[in-house]
Amino acid sequence: MEFKISREFLSEIEQLISENKSQELLLLLEDIHFADIAEIMEELDDYGAGYIFNTLDSEKTAEILLELDEEVREKILRNLSPKEIAEELDELSTDDAADIIAELPQHKKEQVISELEDVEHAKDIVDLLRYDEDSAGGLMGKELVKVNENWNVLTCVKEMRAQAENVSRVHSIYVVDDEDRLKGRLSLKDLLTTSTKTHISEVYIKKVDYVKVDTKDVEVARIMQKYDLEAIPVVDELGRLVGRITIDDIIDVIKEEADKDYQLAAGISQDVEADDSILELTKARLPWLVLALFGGFISVHVLGIFEPVMKFHPELFFFTPLIAAMAGNVGVQSSAIIVQGLANNTIIGPVVERLLKELSLSLLNGVILSIILLAGSYFLLGYEIHVGYTVSIALLSVIIMASLIGTFIPIILNKYGVDPALATGPFITTSNDILGILTYFTIAKIILGI
Amino acid sequence: MEFKISREFLSEIEQLISENKSQELLLLLEDIHFADIAEIMEELDDYGAGYIFNTLDSEKTAEILLELDEEVREKILRNLSPKEIAEELDELSTDDAADIIAELPQHKKEQVISELEDVEHAKDIVDLLRYDEDSAGGLMGKELVKVNENWNVLTCVKEMRAQAENVSRVHSIYVVDDEDRLKGRLSLKDLLTTSTKTHISEVYIKKVDYVKVDTKDVEVARIMQKYDLEAIPVVDELGRLVGRITIDDIIDVIKEEADKDYQLAAGISQDVEADDSILELTKARLPWLVLALFGGFISVHVLGIFEPVMKFHPELFFFTPLIAAMAGNVGVQSSAIIVQGLANNTIIGPVVERLLKELSLSLLNGVILSIILLAGSYFLLGYEIHVGYTVSIALLSVIIMASLIGTFIPIILNKYGVDPALATGPFITTSNDILGILTYFTIAKIILGI
């Protein structure tokens, strides 16, 4: 069951804060999940958010910190001393603590680390800070349960009890050799159902999926998703077990990647949200619009070249937005399917095959649409039949061109290591607008003999 | 580490199949994960896919069935007798087995169910088939570990060993009363670290998140994601524990939902992939294109109305694709941010506030873009300054209009229970094209006094 923030609840909280009734506030928030408290804080002003944060005890606030928007978190952290921040981080798992430290300004980073109470915890966090945040190393946590292949089940259970104190969820028990190299895994279930005297080396599973510290996060996500893993161990260059990644971190990666592709298709760069400031939203949106505007300049210029046509066939100019829009739509459709296929790794095989398939598809769609256009321009719009022929043949050519470009560009971008999602959205619509108009008038001139 | 399908590997397999060397094939596929074998089968022709399926033993084939594309799976199942299908399903968990049965034709469904060996398993599957596939009931599995609140830890561990036989991953231990009503949960860790004589009622956690059988799948996904849950229990109308949903099923929901929104933004309906047939791809793409084409008819008609303007200001017609494209781009940007916000439940507060924010944002963007357009039309394109003024002021108005429409429509759709993602893509670009052109010429006529 989920808690829903209501307007009434928010004003009740605002009321309590303005009257400085911290006890009543604590009571009100007592049974509310930290993820919900974070959402409440994001709805309040800075003072209100800070007030709630200072009122709650650190066990809850540490988790709240994690759930907050980066912007709100930064404001809260700015008002905390390094010692206070360290106290929050002591409550968190290593990967979460490292993520928060990474956001701090350089000088504060070191102060906070030096204030961490648990030395082992601090060492683990410092170790995690070395890795690129988009890599397996940047995603992994140090909390894991590992056993030596030479132990027996009894020692194993004993050791595990000690280790499990620091681990909130036991996913898998990893088996290592004396050099800490990953050898295999052991399921909790096996441990539950095996005699205590059995040697680990007899029962552990030697086949274990793993990733290296420098594997890209999206790659880790794909592997865990494909093989249905809830956790995956991470090894260093020497094959030594250095951490583990759990599925909840991967969900964030999957969600972010999907959101990013969606935003790029809609012409928004950076990961923005509706609640971000106008300046941030402008930074994410304006560059694409400027790009489209310059593309527009070219289309104005191209149309200007065909001005002489206007004298004899002004109606051709009425059809330009239609042709441009169709080119844009077809281009986005084609590229979106390829971008998604590339993201899911289902695009294999030679490019030529893809293009041939897209060619058949666009021929089929194009012919149907051209016939509708022919009928529509004659019956609906009342233009002469030779105008209908001209725009219909032009439409067919433009659709074929747009779909081939939409297929080709993302594949090429991907080949050269550029995010193919860049090709969707304003980029493809703008270039297809221009090429569409050029193709359209060229064909019209040929057909009409002007 | 992940296995990658290479062209060479595929042709090696094709070779072995054509030479009917099943033993060599088995050897080659021995260490390959079932998810990878499924991918290989999807690359082969029907005969090859069937050959591999028949060669492997049923422990592996059951999992492969799950991983296959629906289309390929259907072909494989068509060639199996009800008894053979039942044998595959006996290897699967209840939710996976139910998903596959749900895809079978009605008469085959009953035959397969009657052939299931394990009666309990069969009963659970039949039970699951009752639920809507987009609900918690449709997602859940029956495999779970539950204990009675009146037991002690020792009984508990004993009972759990028996239950765990059927459960591949133990996420949480659920505590129920004598009526099977969900009372709370117990972590494996607690069980590992508690004395065996302790009574369950003393140690279990009374606060437990749960969903009802009829909760929507996207809602379940949001709850599990927000509260960072790896499994969630499902209760019926009377609060009785009837199943559990695990995070791996939720990842599929998240992925599908994100893919769907992305595709709608790109003007593709239905969940299609690059590898689908041309007919399926056409079914997903053509309707949007036809919609856009009819929108295009309206824009042709609108431009026709303004034909008299052509005599004095032909250049206005050169700017129409630019204006239409900008209106489309701005509209998609605005709606995409709202659609994403609605999906993530971050859009709260009155609509008027949103519109005011969008108004400021579009004013800021619009003024910058209009100045660029003014400068560009004068310096780059060489048009007279009064032309520049006219198109710039029109652009500003069109941008404001487009962004307000882009914000308003998804919110309204959502309010009336329609998927707001429908509003992005061709729908918004087409309507903004038309309105943009209309606004543009109306303003131009006023300014130029024609």
UniProtKB/TrEMBL annotation, chains A, B:
SMART domains: CBS (SM00116), MgtE_N (SM00924). Keywords: CBS domain, Cell membrane, Magnesium, Membrane, Metal-binding, Transmembrane, Transmembrane helix, Transport. It is found in: Cell membrane; Membrane. GO terms for molecular function: magnesium ion transmembrane transporter activity; metal ion binding. Acts as a magnesium transporter. Homodimer. This is Magnesium transporter MgtE. It comes from Flavobacterium cheniae. The lineage of its organism: Bacteria, Pseudomonadati, Bacteroidota, Flavobacteriia, Flavobacteriales.
